[in-house]
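tool_log.txt
---
The assistant was asked to compare two proteins side by side. It first ran the structure predictor on the initial sequence, then on the second. Raw inputs and outputs are pasted verbatim so the downstream comparison step can read them without reformatting.
(1)
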Amino acid sequence: MRRALDRLYLLAGYAAALCMVGTLAMVLLGIASRLLHFQVPGTDAYAGYCMAGAGFLALAHTLGHGEHIRVGLLLDHAGPRLKRALELWSLVAGLALAVLLAWFSLRLAWMSWDLHDVSTGTDATPLWIPQLTMALGTLVLAIALADALLRCLAGERRGPAPSPQHE
């Protein structure tokens, strides 16, 4: 199970990287089209879709590597019991928020698909496609937070290393 979860987080990270490449491609295509005097409709919109996809799809991978921003000031000075309580509280709160965001993101993508909603630009992209990256990213984040919570409850220490003390 551990290998499957780690593979899922890695796959989401690779998908985020592909979205970053897509963002770069759309920006470069937009620049080239202006320089060469031709129009490619939707490059700005697609760059935005790819950027949002990169941000959401990278969340679980980033969490798994302990790279999310943490406020270590309080944790560095807390005792072991308080530190564990704060860690559990933050994982439960993060999981609750991620589940809600995943639910509403999935619902939004489903509604856009069901209603055949398209973007207002000239490209008329079906909106469920870019919305799906947000939905999948938040769903994988919820899975990663549930995984981290269960590991924390089991007493496993997985996450960011304590921040170094400044001297």
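(2)
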Amino acid sequence: MSRREDYEKRTEQLLTPIAAANQVSIYDVEYVKEGSDYYLRAYIDKPEGVNIQDCENVSRALSDALDEEDFIPDAYILEVSSPGLGRALKKDKHLQAAIGQEVEIRLYKPVDGIKEFSGTLESFDADTVTVRDDDSARSFERRSVALIRLAFDF
């Protein structure tokens, strides 16, 4: 397990009782380096959507728990937020919840000169993701997908 994966797993373990106490679910936890800064991000959700008070309550409790455990030696910025309307679908549980919904897919390399596709998420497995547009279904290898996220119209 990489250092990043270890930090994410341990943070999620600390976050689990905090999320339950605040009646939110954990959508994702990520530890990333952007520029010269490290970020520890916790994304929380609930059916009616999270609000700023939910984020603040979880952030304060998680910050205290992280300070007590002190397993991340690097300086980092803690962020707690909603995954948002155009949430990234990174895990199988995210994809499963999005079956039948409109998604956008961005590929690492173009297929037939195109890098971005959209349609209804039809299915997925360990190796592929299948999206249906108006005309037909199209499958993509998961390893060639840079990003899958929910599509939203305003």
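---
observation on (2): The chain has two domains: 3-81, 92-150. The beta strands are 25-34, 37-45, 77-81, 102-111, 114-124, 128-132, 137-141, 145-150.
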